[in-house]
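fyi for ur records
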Amino acid sequence: MVSKCKYCGSTSYGSGCMKSPTKKHEHIDDEKHCVFCGLTSYGSGCMCNA
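which gave:
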């Protein structure tokens, strides 16, 4: 199953979601990837969550 943004339904990550209060796509149903950028890294450093 492909993860989709909880606000707009897009499969994109990062900025560009016009329906999100942060203007970033947010995927809450994908536990293996960053909710904001889609990377599999852990810890600080996500440029999309700035």
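The chain is about 0% helix and 10% strand. thats all i got for now
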